[in-house]
Amino acid sequence: MHGRADRLRRTVERSRTLNPRPDLASASAVGRRPCDGAGLRAAREAAGLSRGALAARSGVSAATIYRIELGGRDRPFPHTVHRLAVALAVAPGDLEA
Predict the structure, then answer these.
(1) Mean pLDDT of 47-71
(2) Domain span at residue 49?
(3) How far apart are CA 18 and CA 39, in angstroms?
(4) Which CATH number characterizes residue 76's domain?
(5) pTM of the entire predicted model
């Protein structure tokens, strides 16, 4: 049993040497800016779109739009904000908090 654990440990160490992972704490915040969920909802309603219609236009799921609007996802990926902004015909900066 001891040999198996050692082999697993060596395999993990070797994979990290070959494919080092960035520090996940710092990588998660890179390029992400706060998104104003209330602003997204106001822009969506001003355009006369439901969450489903905005999802269809933007390629962003209705569940993600819902989470952003309610503040559950306050730092979405930049490409997500860009897709939503294009679908709503607003500048991406208009959706940032």
Answers:
(1) 94
(2) 37-95
(3) 44
(4) 1.10.260.40
(5) 0.67
